[in-house]
Write a structure and sequence with these properties.
Helix content is about 75%, strand content about 0%. It is built from 6 helices and no strands. The protein has helices at about 1-15, 20-25, 30-65, 80-100, 105-115, 120-145. The chain is globular and about 55 Å long.
Length: about 150
């Protein structure tokens, strides 16, 4: 029964912050197949939740209040310029690649949604990215005998 709680906890953590879920799965010493399916399923569950929850929130917001034309004032600094340059250069593929490690799943999914309107394309690119990171950690840990678990401590 304890194994099920570990699997559920890793899956739920991966819905929010994928890299922490990878560290938890390494700490629990999951088998490679369990490691892969647990982390990728958790990440994709987060993508599905945030994609459709955001649309639902926008629908409810538009029904409750009429959108008002507002002028948004944004302070332009170095970080904003870097983010804009990165998103214009790499697009949805770059955002999906850094989402599991640097950006959290909700933020990365919403940025991808702002860049791409096709939800199936977002889900496919995020699935490839999540699979890449999970398989990379599995390969480094099990096949190349690199102690990846010490990186997460």
């Amino acid at each position: 029964m304890n194994d099920w709680w570990q699997i559920i906890s890793v899956t739920l953590v991966c819905t929010i912050k994928f890299i922490i879920g990878l560290g938890m799965a390494l700490a629990y010493n999951f088998k490679p197949i369990t490691f892969y399916f647990t982390t990728v399923f958790g990440g994709m569950l987060g993508v599905f939740i945030y994609l459709y929850l955001w649309d639902f929130i926008l629908i409810i917001k538009n029904k409750i209040s009429q959108p008002k034309p507002t002028i948004i004032h944004i302070k332009i600094n170095k970080n904003i310029r870097r983010m804009v340059h990165f998103s214009r250069t790499w697009g949805i593929y770059g955002i999906a690649l850094v989402t599991p490690t640097i950006i959290s799943m909700p933020v990365g999914t919403l940025i991808c949604r702002a860049l791409e309107k096709n939800k199936w394309h977002i889900k496919l690119v995020m699935f490839i990215s999540l699979s890449f990171w999970s398989l990379l950690i599995i390969a480094l840990q099990n096949f190349f005998n690199i102690d990846v678990q010490s990186w997460f401590k």
